[in-house]
Amino acid sequence: MSGVSARSLAKGSAAPGPVPEGLIRVYSMRFCPFAERTLLVLKAKGIRHEVININLKNKPEWFFKKNPAGLVPVLENSKGQLICESAITCEYLDEAYPGKKLLPGDPYEKACQKMVFELFSKVLTNKKTTFFGGNSVSMIDYLVWPWFERLEALELNECVDHTPKLKLWMAAMREDPAVSALLLDVKALKGFIDLYLQNSPEACDYGL
Amino acid sequence: MPGDGTQALGKGSCPPGPVPEGLIRIYSMRFCPYSHRTRLVLRAKGIRHEIININLRNKPEWYYTKHPFGQIPVLETSQCQLIYESVIACEYLDDAYPGRKLFPCDPYERARQKMLLELFCKVPQLTKECLIALRCRRDCTDLKIALRQEFCNLEKILDYQNTTFFGGDCISMIDYLLWPWFERLDVYGIADCVSHTPGLRLWVSAMKQDPTVCALLTDKGIFQGYLSLYFRNNPNAFDYGLC
């Protein structure tokens, strides 16, 4: 599958040609968690695809013809049909391609998966208040913070377009005295993970 | 099957029993646009159902066992399965029940309807804010400009497709999912927000000729009566117009 590790296309780049028959193309970015959803489904279903990475900090003009919002992921098939929004692309792939179905066949079970996804999306987008529980830090913020702290430590935050409220929440959390007192050092975390993956007993004491 | 005309259940009410076989239950409120979506689908597909209206200002304690935050609509089956979020409920009904399919069969066309729904996603909040601003006699010029912009985006789609309905030449799921907010434009006092979108106006007229839409159309006087009571925090608002 070409392109997963390819350099991103930026402003001034030539628009790619049509998608060859028998392939589907995904416009992606290597560190974007939303685009990763689509790549996971493509992989899980064994769908032949090509990847074009987009420079989200310097978007090619032609990319806005693929998605007026300028976001990844976007699917393009050989008929020139374009599908945007990560969850919609994933469901499209499950429906359009044969093989293992990722969504359950039973209507109720399928609805259950969508209900869980909605709850998860609410965590990600957090439209209403600054913090998850209201206008000041509360238990729910502390309960979810460790996962977001690690996500940020391990990935470049290139997809802030999707989740500006989340970015604001993370900045607000960093100001919290408890959070800032315990903030993970990124280098130490990476060192820990390296050793941990090697099953080293020294992993847990990295940096001490 | 009873109409939507049952009194809203509030605190202290008895929890309803299990849903009888052969029926599906919807927890609803007569004037809620989200529930309206699901009631449209139930009607369009001819699904036998019963409606329990919930007093949203005075929710029964038992209702939180149906939805963690006490929201509507919620579907409950005779196997005690609960489905919430209006769009998920609508899709569930289309999947689970035979007969006329409201979503297209083609995966790309299905994806297009879902992308259209995303395009619409700011409209509910904007119409609600306009309503509140007007009721509180605040200026809503900026809100209406924003709403007009959203309607322009939808107009472009109709224009590009050159079809009567959002899904093509026949009414389909996406039209029912959008309809409740357009039905409310007049009674909310913002009907002029479609003054610059002729395609949308044509769509509204076409929708009003659909038998399902017509069957569930709420009388304007009753809706206004509800809104007056609602904005005065009258707990009987939800039952306005019931005999």
TrEMBL record, chain A:
<comment type="function">
    <text>Exhibits glutathione-dependent thiol transferase activity. Has high dehydroascorbate reductase activity and may contribute to the recycling of ascorbic acid. Participates in the biotransformation of inorganic arsenic and reduces monomethylarsonic acid (MMA).</text>
</comment>
<dbReference type="InterPro" id="IPR036249">
    <property type="entry name" value="Thioredoxin-like_sf"/>
</dbReference>
<comment type="function">
    <text>Exhibits glutathione-dependent thiol transferase and dehydroascorbate reductase activities. Has S-(phenacyl)glutathione reductase activity. Also has glutathione S-transferase activity. Participates in the biotransformation of inorganic arsenic and reduces monomethylarsonic acid (MMA) and dimethylarsonic acid.</text>
</comment>
<feature type="domain" description="GST N-terminal">
    <location>
        <begin position="22"/>
        <end position="101"/>
    </location>
</feature>
<keyword id="KW-0808">Transferase</keyword>
<comment type="subunit">
    <text>Homodimer.</text>
</comment>
<dbReference type="GO" id="GO:0006749">
    <property type="term" value="P:glutathione metabolic process"/>
</dbReference>
<dbReference type="Pfam" id="PF13409">
    <property type="entry name" value="GST_N_2"/>
</dbReference>
<feature type="domain" description="GST C-terminal">
    <location>
        <begin position="65"/>
        <end position="197"/>
    </location>
</feature>
<keyword id="KW-0560">Oxidoreductase</keyword>
<comment type="similarity">
    <text>Belongs to the GST superfamily. Omega family.</text>
</comment>
<dbReference type="GO" id="GO:0019852">
    <property type="term" value="P:L-ascorbic acid metabolic process"/>
</dbReference>
<dbReference type="GO" id="GO:0045174">
    <property type="term" value="F:glutathione dehydrogenase (ascorbate) activity"/>
</dbReference>
<keyword id="KW-0963">Cytoplasm</keyword>
<dbReference type="InterPro" id="IPR036282">
    <property type="entry name" value="Glutathione-S-Trfase_C_sf"/>
</dbReference>
<protein>
    <recommendedName>
        <fullName>Glutathione S-transferase omega</fullName>
        <ecNumber>1.20.4.2</ecNumber>
        <ecNumber>1.8.5.1</ecNumber>
        <ecNumber>2.5.1.18</ecNumber>
    </recommendedName>
</protein>
<dbReference type="InterPro" id="IPR040079">
    <property type="entry name" value="Glutathione_S-Trfase"/>
</dbReference>
<dbReference type="InterPro" id="IPR004046">
    <property type="entry name" value="GST_C"/>
</dbReference>
<dbReference type="Pfam" id="PF14497">
    <property type="entry name" value="GST_C_3"/>
</dbReference>
<dbReference type="GO" id="GO:0005829">
    <property type="term" value="C:cytosol"/>
</dbReference>
<dbReference type="InterPro" id="IPR050983">
    <property type="entry name" value="GST_Omega/HSP26"/>
</dbReference>
<keyword id="KW-0007">Acetylation</keyword>
From TrEMBL, chain B:
<dbReference type="Pfam" id="PF13409">
    <property type="entry name" value="GST_N_2"/>
</dbReference>
<dbReference type="GO" id="GO:0006805">
    <property type="term" value="P:xenobiotic metabolic process"/>
</dbReference>
<protein>
    <recommendedName>
        <fullName>Glutathione S-transferase omega</fullName>
        <ecNumber>1.20.4.2</ecNumber>
        <ecNumber>1.8.5.1</ecNumber>
        <ecNumber>2.5.1.18</ecNumber>
    </recommendedName>
</protein>
<feature type="domain" description="GST C-terminal">
    <location>
        <begin position="106"/>
        <end position="237"/>
    </location>
</feature>
<dbReference type="InterPro" id="IPR040079">
    <property type="entry name" value="Glutathione_S-Trfase"/>
</dbReference>
<dbReference type="InterPro" id="IPR004046">
    <property type="entry name" value="GST_C"/>
</dbReference>
<dbReference type="GO" id="GO:0006749">
    <property type="term" value="P:glutathione metabolic process"/>
</dbReference>
<dbReference type="GO" id="GO:0004364">
    <property type="term" value="F:glutathione transferase activity"/>
</dbReference>
<comment type="function">
    <text>Exhibits glutathione-dependent thiol transferase activity. Has high dehydroascorbate reductase activity and may contribute to the recycling of ascorbic acid. Participates in the biotransformation of inorganic arsenic and reduces monomethylarsonic acid (MMA).</text>
</comment>
<dbReference type="Pfam" id="PF14497">
    <property type="entry name" value="GST_C_3"/>
</dbReference>
<comment type="similarity">
    <text>Belongs to the GST superfamily. Omega family.</text>
</comment>
<dbReference type="GO" id="GO:0071243">
    <property type="term" value="P:cellular response to arsenic-containing substance"/>
</dbReference>
<dbReference type="GO" id="GO:0042802">
    <property type="term" value="F:identical protein binding"/>
</dbReference>
<dbReference type="GO" id="GO:0045174">
    <property type="term" value="F:glutathione dehydrogenase (ascorbate) activity"/>
</dbReference>
<dbReference type="GO" id="GO:0005737">
    <property type="term" value="C:cytoplasm"/>
</dbReference>
<dbReference type="InterPro" id="IPR010987">
    <property type="entry name" value="Glutathione-S-Trfase_C-like"/>
</dbReference>
<keyword id="KW-0560">Oxidoreductase</keyword>
<feature type="domain" description="GST N-terminal">
    <location>
        <begin position="22"/>
        <end position="101"/>
    </location>
</feature>
<keyword id="KW-0808">Transferase</keyword>
<dbReference type="GO" id="GO:0050610">
    <property type="term" value="F:methylarsonate reductase activity"/>
</dbReference>
<dbReference type="GO" id="GO:0019852">
    <property type="term" value="P:L-ascorbic acid metabolic process"/>
</dbReference>
<dbReference type="InterPro" id="IPR005442">
    <property type="entry name" value="GST_omega"/>
</dbReference>
